[in-house]
Amino acid sequence: MSFLQEFRKFAMRGNVVDLAVGVIIGAAFGKIVSSLVANVIMPPLGLLIGGIDFKQFSWVLKPAQGETPAVVMEYGIFIQNVFDFIIVALAVFTMVKLINKMHKKEEAKPSEPPKPSAEETLLTEIRDLLKQQNTPAALNNPTPPPAGESFSPRP
């Protein structure tokens, strides 16, 4: 088998394709969440706090000198990324809970017990007859066996 055929076989396996689809959808979902946080959640939150734009929060560790740019720690962007993470984590948690709930509903449906085989049915009938014959009333008043069978009463 050539290298290309082997790679094609590997790439087309179910798990690899499912993983690729998951990564692509996850990346797209991440962009949507980032946009939601940056453009929908953070502006009103900044307005409520006093017109603050979180992206502007930073500490200048070393000011710019001539051609050298300033060394800045942009913790406002970090705060925004924390909000991104929290929203993604809540969304994933909610989806996992829903999926688990659906799996529990599927498991909760009781399946019908299998019907007993002919052998089991016969054994059950024999057991019931033996129990009936071993009751005190049956021992004191034995019934004659069907024609052609011998009968020996119990002592």
Percent range for β-strand residues: under 5%
Low-confidence segments, given as residue ranges, are none
Task: State the distance separating the first and last CA atoms.
Answer: 81 Å
Outline the biggest β-sheet.
2 strands, antiparallel
Q: Strands of the largest sheet, in order across it?
A: 1-2
Instruction: State the shape.
Output: elongated
Per DSSP, the total helix count is 5
In short:
By secondary structure, this protein is mostly helical.
What features would you describe in this structure?
With 155 residues, the protein is mainly alpha-helical. The protein has a domain at 8-64 and 82-106. Helices cover 65% and strands 5% of the residues. The protein has helices at 3-11, 14-49, 75-108, 118-133, 136-140; strands at residues 59-62, 71-73. Strands 1-2 form a two-stranded antiparallel ribbon. α2 crosses α3 (75-108). 2% of the residues are buried. The mean pLDDT is 82.
